[in-house]
Fold these 2 entries.
Entry 1:
Amino acid sequence: MIAFLDGQLAGKTLSSALISVGGVGFEVGMSQRSLAELPQMGERVTLYTYLSVREDDLSLFGFGSLEERELFEKLISVSGVGPKVALAALSSYEPGKLVELIASQDVAAVQKIPGIGKKTASRIILELKGSLEMDGESLFGQQKAQASAALAAAQEALLSMGFTSAEASVALKDAPEDATEGALLQYALKRLGSQG
């Protein structure tokens, strides 16, 4: 499976991004939220991916975070929910909010997602509500999602400064969990400075 793509943003459509990796262009289906968060054309981008294989179709889907990809995989495991409907769900609600709606069994809110009727909304809630919680806490808590987004953005910034991914990972290790992207960057640069 293709776990992630790390390349340049070569283009965007209404529902996908074109990523150039080593001279090969990948078309990656994405949620509206993730598409809106992409950098400028020509800039470096890293996306977590999911390869959907069907008899007549190979489709690659991209996500800004591991949480978003995991939620996508859980959604498409529900019968009657395909990749397009799962992307519509992730376009309608951020992962933390969608999990909250499923956990609170809010059929009406889940039903607002394009392509989802009352039966499908009920099925999603029935099949997923238990699997999205661990020890009574949501796997996709909003703070956790925000923290991982800040961490990913800080790592991306370090990579664009010329540091290797190994150096960036070491520099961000044990960083404060609730820090903003800017604070994480300062923390990492201090650590990298003290090593040099």
Entry 2:
Amino acid sequence: MSAFFALCSNGGPRPGGGSQEVRLIKNVKVTRVNRMIRIPRVMVVDEDGEQLGILETTDALAIAEERGLDLVEVAPAARPPVCKIMDYGKFKYEQAKKAKKAKQASHTVKVKTIQFRPKTDDHDYDFKKKHIVTFLQAGNKVKIVMRFRGREISHVDLALEFLRALIVEIQEYGAPESEPQREGRLITFVVAPKRV
């Protein structure tokens, strides 16, 4: 949770009871607009990007109101803070649109897991292979796990041969990132999709 606790004290214990109040304040970036700007002097940039210089905040607000726009603090850390005259509603809409577009552009790669056993039936094999191909075509990685039970562990060479045959059958959709690794009663490796 991105929040921090602020302890607000009223100057010590009160005669009637509780001495302190604890509030949860969320760590939210607030953009100051119009009357929220409390600093006496600000550097002002107009809607065309031209600097109007350092002005009294009241004068800057008057200019913005005269033009039917808002005074928005764009660089609060600067001394004096930089404020721009703009349509704040339009600015917020464009920012939200850019954020949505950036979120859509970023594709997170998921790792799907498919498990086999050395005695996997032909029908199950075809069904799982079809799923692997579907996942790779969707741009996801696939972790292939060969699980051994009981005495099956004595036939690791047959399992590796089984996995090599699988790799050959799916090679047009993806390729293994590394050689199969043995971990106890498992053999695992990850297949990454081929880039188009």
